[in-house]
Amino acid sequence: MSADTRVGFVGLGNIGKPMAQRLAAGGDLVVYDVAPQPVADLVAAGAGAAASVADLAGQVDVLCVMVRDDDQVREVLGEALGTARPGLVVAVHSTVAPLTPRQLEVTAGRHDVLVVDAPVSGGAMGAADGTLAIMVGGSEAAYAAARPVLERMGSRVVHAGAIGAGTQMKLARNMMHFVAFTAATEAQRLAEAAGLDLVELGHVVRHTDAITGGPGAIMHRDTTAPLAEDDFWFGVFDHVRALGEKDLSFAIELADTLGVDVPLARQARERLAKGLGLPHE
Asked: Looking at the structure, do residues 87 and 179 belong to the same domain, yes or no?
């Protein structure tokens, strides 16, 4: 972020506030939020305070938006466009509906304002230590202008593609996240029925996922097409399939013995081979 780049930040919640604090430590930052305390905290960290979104937008080159939902994002953009200077880049960090970023881009374009959708992954902890993953959709020009600001808040900034691509990547990432959470609750029910310590099971899961990479450990290919037998990954994934089908079968056997319903485990056993790109019945 160059010394003369002025950045605005709207939305100082659990993730937005630590994101803004990263910017306050290294640049010219102005903030706005409807709640006075986080604004006061950012002012104490060296930021300026704006009286409104419109007041803020007229002062800055890049405007970061981290508010609750699509309606609030639209409201912020609408207020900003009245005072924005041509060339302002609005970076929308909120996770919004798939079509919203393109709609925002069209609206902003009528005012010579650029938009990137730049949702984040890593939570409040990642925001606080600057290790967020930030997935960006937008034109090359918009991304180039926003990138120096984004790199102060995240350690992995990915230009996913055209406007909306950042949101699409975030939705794919979070789909896996929450499906995995649901699978975790299924595993907890099985472990509880077996009389196991659920807290210790959680420790084991986090410990081993930190070593192996968890579900991301299989995400190396640039396609989901079926694998040819001479492909390097065929042997690797066939080994994964064999272990997975064996262990899932044993887990389902245990669940049947204990009277625990494990529908996700049954679906996983059925779909694992196909999902890995391997021959299946």
From this structure: no
